[in-house]
Amino acid sequence: MVGTVTAALDVMGGDAGADMVLPGAEIAAERIPGVRYVLFGDAASVEPLLARYPKLGVISSFEHCDLAIGMEDKPGQALRRGRGTSSMWRAIETVKDGKAGVAVSAGNTGALMAMSKFCLKDAKDIDRPAIAAVWPTLKGESVVLDVGATIGATSEQLYQFAVMGAAMSRALLGRAKPTVGLLNIGVEEVKGLEQVRLAGRLLKEAELPFLDYAGFVEGDDIGKGAVDVIVTEGFAGNIALKTAEGTARQIAAYLRETVEENLMSRLGFLLARRAFGKLRKKLDTRRMNGGVFLGLNGLVIKSHGGTDAEGFAAAIEIGCSMARNGIVEKINEDVALHRPERPAVAVDDATSGVA
Amino acid sequence: MVGTVTAALDVMGGDAGADMVLPGAEIAAERIPGVRYVLFGDAASVEPLLARYPKLGVISSFEHCDLAIGMEDKPGQALRRGRGTSSMWRAIETVKDGKAGVAVSAGNTGALMAMSKFCLKDAKDIDRPAIAAVWPTLKGESVVLDVGATIGATSEQLYQFAVMGAAMSRALLGRAKPTVGLLNIGVEEVKGLEQVRLAGRLLKEAELPFLDYAGFVEGDDIGKGAVDVIVTEGFAGNIALKTAEGTARQIAAYLRETVEENLMSRLGFLLARRAFGKLRKKLDTRRMNGGVFLGLNGLVIKSHGGTDAEGFAAAIEIGCSMARNGIVEKINEDVALHRPERPAVAVDDATSGVA
Questions:
Q1: Residue B242 and residue A219: Cβ atoms within 8 Å?
Q2: To pair with A336 at 20 to 30 A between CA atoms, which of A54, A89, A328, B129?
Q3: Which residue in chain B is spatially nearest to A140 when comparing CA positions?
């Protein structure tokens, strides 16, 4: 028998707000046994809509919030203005108070991260949070982090990201001892930024029981599923994620042109439509929706602002699955298990690498 | 009437060496009117093969070299050992001596860059070289740089990359006044590394007559063809390039599975085979082969080590087209036209951005 899991939803977040969040929550409810929602938003605009989703009524409570954070609000400004009152803050606070296992918002990333850090605080022994993405690969799914929270991470931070990513792979994807790679570039002359080389050394020397350090990987190893967890700093990680999404959309556009090319191609794709349907599903970037904030005392999921109900449902599913598997506790345990000494060697010395 | 263009080829470079370089050169010769080759390699292994490509004999001269640089050789070691004698060095030297317009090698990137810098020297007013890639987009082709030469470029270096990338777009792709974007990430809290923000300011203030600065772009804008030139530092650029290639190969694998899914799909794709052939061409990552070393006193093209003859031909084509259009001279002229003052503002002040 499965217990309940509660998700706090920021109904005002995203480009379409309640029109996207509520149907998304209904789709997710059909897929997640025992899910319950606490919904935060503006009563005047949300309550009339709620009536259209009778199933939600049964498993949800609704709380009115006077304020909604805009997609263009600056993080500091959003925090000052929206603390305590906004739908985004209230959703996060519900996690802090232990009344929900996860908060999900499609609101702006900077504001959501600023509020999450302020409200939930960094987890013990974690210097900086990371945003993790679930990346579809030829072998299944990998965890990629950081995709935008910590720019230019240090070697210790990369080490912590590896531990957190491995915990996520275990909690969400059921890997017993996930393989972990550090994202690097293959140009020999410059192989490895100092912090990446040093992080590799930390991971190698730590010999952690719950992850299998596999050395450096390159950009094209992600899609291959070469490792279960790919670790990088937030700038390169964000660019990798967005570039992959862009490439997938580019090829999907080529594919549509191909179908429409001539009479024979239209007929051909009609015959192949069952197989083609599967392909379309694989190319659907909504499957990748849901950036997971790791390294805080509580779980927050960031959905794309421009997603639709299907994409938002995917974000809720990831969140509930991780909440159910006690990801926050797992990370805390794992980090406590082995805290590397700050390495005594100078950074310039660390040229050995593990590639 | 088209004049001749001479390419110096390192016949020993790449995983397959002469077996790949010679047929590649023959394919390229059919496509490039007036091309001539100077071939460098080991006589004992290359000359017997050369006999199989009679067309090459007519337009090529061959020079024996005692030494070949290995794919695993460290750059410094390759330079010490191979200077003056290796096929890689001799090809680059031919460009320095003005006897070839471009050198093409599929040898290891680090060694090729180290030798190119040592032999050709940095161009006037250019601090660091960049490797530029031609990236197929929904609108045609864009230039992306740096994809691996200069890790963590400064704002001045990014500015120089923008100037060089625009010159390449004009020389290779015929854009009169290319649009240029700086690659950045869209997380509000951290929007813009300091050096990226500052580079944006330099470009905006310079009001260069030969490029149109379009502000920040994100990873998914590359495939859209949002701008003609995408500028970034070498770590993120290399990861973006490899990730896109990996995603394209991943989707190509899905597509093959789709074709083989069942009898109807096989029949369908048979009917659609003409349209499908065009798609296959678009997904062919060999089209992207050929990293262009910019910022040196001479033109060098790096081919993928693992490419085949078709891919190597693409690298030769890019090189000859750029040599013919006087890319090195164009860059020197453009850089001389406007050299930005080192900005007086502190980096922390530069929070305005141009996004």
A1: yes
A2: A89
A3: B250
- Proportion of chain A above pLDDT 90, given as a percent: 66
**A141, two tokens:** 């799914």
Task: Report the half-sphere exposure of B180 (CA within 13 A, side-chain side).
Answer: 31
pTM (2 decimals)?
Answer: 0.89
Partner residue facing A235 (CB), from B236, B259, B273: B236
3-state secondary structure labels for all residues of chain A = CCCCEEEEEECCCCCCCHHHHHHHHHHHHHHCCCEEEEEEECHHHHHHHHCCCHHHHHHEEEEECCECCCCCCCHHHHHHHHCCCEHHHHHHHHHHCCCCCEEEECCCHHHHHHHHHHHHCECCCCCCCEEEEEEEECCEEEEEECCCCCCCCCHHHHHHHHHHHHHHHHHHHCCCCCEEEEECCCCHHHCCCHHHHHHHHHHHHHCCCCCEEEEEECHHHHHHCCCCEEECCHHHHHHHHHHHHHHHHHHHHHHHHHHHCCHHHHHHHHHCHHHHHHHHHHHCHHHHCCEEEECECCCEEECCCCCCHHHHHHHHHHHHHHHHCCHHHHHHHHHHHCCCCCCCCCHHHCCCCCC
In sign, the C-alpha dihedral spanning A270, A271, A276, A277 is positive
Spell out which residues of chain B touch residue A183, defining contact as CB-CB under 8 Å. 239
How many other CB atoms are found less than 10 A from the CB of residue A321? Answer: 16
User: What is the per-residue pLDDT across A135-181, written as a single tens digit (0 to 9) for each?
Assistant: 999 999 999 999 999 888 999 999 999 999 999 999 889 899 999 99
Does A284 contact B at CB distance below 8 Å? no
Find which of A117, A131, A189 to mutate to test the B interface (most B CBs within 10 Å of its CB): A189
- Specify whether the CB–CB gap between B120 and B167 falls below 8 A: no
Q: Contacts of residue A272 in chain B, CB cutoff 8 Å?
A: 258-259, 261, 264-265, 267-269, 272
User: Which residues from chain B sit within 8 angstroms of residue A113, using beta carbons?
Assistant: 187, 189
Predicted confidence (pLDDT) per residue in A14-42, tens digit: 999 999 999 999 999 999 999 999 999 99
Q: Is the pLDDT of residue A354 over 50?
A: no
Q: Is B270 on the interface with A (CB under 8 A)?
A: yes
**Crossing angle (nearest 10°) for helices A234-260 and B273-283:** 160
Listed in sequence order, the residues at least 6 apart from B97 whose beta carbon sits closer than 8 Å to its beta carbon are: none
Q: How high does pLDDT run on average in chain A?
A: 89
Write the CB contacts of A55 (distance below 8 Å, at least 6 apart in sequence): A26, A29
- Helix, strand or coil for residue B330? helix
ipTM value: 0.87
